[in-house]
Design a protein that fits this description.
The protein is an alpha+beta fold and 606 residues long. It is 56% helix and 11% strand. It is built from 21 helices and ten strands. The strands form two sheets. The chain has a six-stranded antiparallel β-sheet, with no helix packed on it. Helix 8 runs parallel beside helix 21, helix 12 runs antiparallel to helix 13 and helix 16 packs across helix 17. The radius of gyration is 26 Å and the shape is globular. The protein starts with a helix and ends with a helix.
Amino acid sequence: MKKLIPPLISLGACIVILLMLMWISTWKSITLGKVEFSSNPNEHRIVSLPFSEDFVGRYTISVDLENVTSAYQEFRITPDDEVVAIRVNGENIPLNNIPHSDLRNYGSGFLMSFNNLKPDQTNVFQFDLVNESNPTGFRLETTQRLTTTQLIGIAFSLFSFALFLSRTLKISHAQKLFLLAGLIVSVMYLSKTDSRTRTFDVYEGGGHKDYIEHLIHHKNLPNPGEGWEYHQPPLYYLIAATAKVTGHIPEAASDLWAQLLALYFWVIFLVSGLACLHIAFRKRLVPLLISSLAFCLWPAGIIHSIRIGNDLGLYAFYGLSFFYTLKWWKTRASSDLIWASLWMGASLLTKSNGLAMTSTLGALFFLHMVLIFTDKQHFQAKKTKLIRDFSIMSAIFATALLLNFGDNIYYYLKGTSSDWLLSNVSESINSGLKVNNNLENYLVFDLATYVLHPFISTWDDISGRQYFWNFVWRSSLTSEFYFQGDALKYWGVSNGIFLLCALAGTCIYFLQKQPYTTRREMILGAYKYLPWILTLVLPFLLLLAYRIKVPLSCNTDFRYIYPVLINIIFFACLTWKKPKELPIPAVLTLGLGIIGASSLYWIKLI
């Protein structure tokens, strides 16, 4: 019983910090009062936002907003089909300066600022809309950005959480400084970026947001074939729904709460990743510093750190599983294997990409068993422990696999789903995302295009999207997003060159070492670093298989395998174990640290 107390205390502390972040997200936020629907002057009925029902014609949505603290406020308005008039406290608001296409933008809506609000009073908004075909819908969200007090509260909560985690996931004092710097940059990025900017599949029909709302309102899992993201395993969405309900997030509030949940997961990933690097380099200061700098300030990581979606949950659980896998490979302690298995199961219940961690742990345990079986005396001494460990790990894997793929396979066998993995998503994909699926798309790396185009596009061949490796390496730096201005263009080009230098330096290092390494040393080295090798190779193989199965440009995004960055940084920083003996690789791999440090320049310009 005593052994259960520390984990329970840790779990309680994690819940408290998460609830604190939920509270910060709604602190002094505008709240929703009465919402009414009317299709004629004599009919008014109470509805809720977001609003959706079958209705064709003209109607009015009236919304009472409370806790308005300023005369000026910006909102995001999402109509279906079209907003034709807006009144605030009885005053008509001109719509001449808003493009007609925005007034009909039911996908992401449009932003509109109001400067005639009444502070500390109820403000009545009326929206006249026209709908031509069922269903109709309407959504109103505040875009209230963070106050200085909120920013400080968020940074303090996140760093306190990181320090708490570092009691178990050991990192050095120098690493904590890089961790603090990385969290500060992420919070700065949050202050400039709302939930709809640089994100994926959140607000599209059946996206991440709808999955969360379905769980909250229907208390069951959605049919995988009825939404864009409904085929995903449920763990992230269950956590998000619980956090929103427990945190009492108002309906009219922005989705800042979900961005803070992403940051919460990001902290777990950062600390677990740093702990893995600490295991590898704790006795070597220079590679530890370079690797920690690159990992904490990697530009794509900053972008992903506040994105709504299950990617961040995967990163967190994958990082924890990898940390305990490294510990188990060193100690062979059952407790480490159990923790590695539990977090592996959590990663698989968050996203199918967790199969890379599952395959790694399974392969390592299989090798462990083979080595024990070859020594009969050793096997007799370890038999009970081996059977117990295998049973626990297998049970966790089987349960996670069943809960992940069970509903998808069920609906596929029933004939209501066209694919056991992606359900009906592949049938509704925009054809503009399709790319060629030939051998050259996977073997060719278009160096000239990679260097000349600092950002990758999912829609345009000119930036290199046809080639697997072009897309992977470009998206590893800034995902699928563009940044405007010459300064950021040169920044993107430079980072691309630095990344190539680091990759080349890593390859040169191992090639230069090979003539001086005996076969026995190579085998022992491969055995020692086998967890690192497997978690480097397997994610790329899964990404390759995914791209071949569904040949879309977006299916090559590095974000699907982002945790592999830990491995890339690790192998690159091995060049700094003896830099005087092999100076060229060491100098080239400094590019990773430069990419991380350049984020301080980037965050000022965006």
